[in-house]
Design a protein that fits this description.
Strand content: 15-25%
Pfam family, one: DUF881
Number of domains: 2
Organism: Negativicoccus succinicivorans DORA_17_25
Family: Belongs to the UPF0749 family.
Protein name: Division initiation protein
CATH class of the largest domain: Alpha Beta
InterPro entries: DUF881
């Protein structure tokens, strides 16, 4: 009887060690996958920013040349794609707020508040899912829009905002929502730290145009290169 008890105890210990190692391995794989996805989304963001910069330059060139009817239509299309016109359509509204969980002794408070990188991850996921227009706290985002922490606030398009942060995105509501809610994704990560995230779908969102400086001081078009 004693030998059986010892054997059962040994098996229990081994199973416990195996489960612990499997859990640690899964966590490490999730972290690696998340880092790869963030890098991929960052590259996509850079491509979108370059495209919008090119569109603004093309629009300025058309305005300088004078507009024919065809050029007027092209200008309207460029304004739309560059975020310089108001738009409406179906999409999602994402609200992000600081955690309301009480801080435990020894924990870093910064882990429980919304940072610029958290907002950027949400926006990148929406862009990757096909969002055609995005606004943060009613500020239209274009290729040159900055989103960065400034103390307890976040600056976007030169204006400062504090929590809660509201992200509007026009596109396929189902695709946009699923891009944020997939298992192990950005919403899961934020909720792990108690950050409050809510997602609402809408059949008709309105997003204002970008209002602000768009003059290009350093980038110049290369003559003879197709647009």
């Amino acid at each position: 009887m004693k030998s059986k008890t010892v054997a059962l105890l040994a098996v229990s210990v081994i199973l416990g060690m195996m489960l612990s190692l499997q859990y640690k391995s899964n966590k490490e794989m999730q972290a690696t996958t998340m880092n790869m996805r963030v890098e991929d989304l960052y590259q996509q963001l850079m491509r979108v920013e370059q495209e919008k910069t090119d569109l603004v330059k093309e629009l300025q060139e058309l305005q300088a040349e004078g507009l024919t009817p065809d050029a007027t239509r092209e200008q309207d299309e460029l304004k739309f794609r560059a975020g310089l016109t108001a738009v409406e359509g179906p999409g999602v509204v994402v609200t992000i707020e600081d955690s309301k969980q009480p801080l435990k002794m020894g924990e870093n408070q910064n882990l429980y508040v919304v940072h610029d990188e958290d907002i950027l991850k949400v926006i990148n996921e929406l862009r990757a899912a096909g969002a055609e227009a995005i606004a943060l706290n009613e500020q239209r985002l274009i290729g040159t829009s900055e989103i960065r922490c400034a103390g307890p606030t976040v600056t976007v398009n030169g204006k400062m905002f504090s929590t809660p942060f509201q992200v509007k995105a026009i596109g396929d509501p189902k695709l946009l929502r699923s891009a944020l809610e997939f298992r192990g994704g950005v919403v899961d990560t934020l909720k792990y730290w108690g950050i409050n995230v809510s997602i609402e779908t809408s059949n008709n969102l309105q997003i204002n145009p970008y209002i602000g400086p768009s003059k290009q001081e350093f980038a110049k078009a290369i003559p003879g290169v197709a647009k």
